[in-house]
Specification:
By secondary structure, the chain is α+β, with helices and mostly antiparallel strands. It has helices spanning 3-21, 70-86, and strands at residues 25-33, 36-44, 47-57, 92-102, 108-117. It has two helices and five strands. Strands 1-2-3-4-5 form a five-stranded mixed β-sheet, with helices on both faces. The termini are far apart.
Length: 123
Amino acid sequence: MAEHNNLGKLGEQLAKDFLVTKGYQILEQNWVCGHKEIDIIAKDGDELVIVEVRARRVQCLVDPEETVDKYKQHFLIWAAEAYIERNNLDIDVRFDIVAIVIDKSNEHRIEHIENAFYPMLSR
């Protein structure tokens, strides 16, 4: 398996464990709709939380959370709408990013950014 795939799987597991320790209920992991994927779907109290996990090695020039651009946000919003519709949910939703920096010995630093972005209202 390619190094970036291993890093991604490790990052998602670290993020999931981190969220569980914070009291989140994990509903889905790697939920796919068409070509879109949501890394983690969880509940935090009465909110549905759509979580994008970004893991990087220490030597990267850009912080992991900075890689969630408007294009990625658009697809996360679209996938979240599909999940809500498929499950007939009426719930508040927020979009979080869990950014993880991992060194060569797999020591890591996790930053959880709640309400990392907001869906734009369509006109």
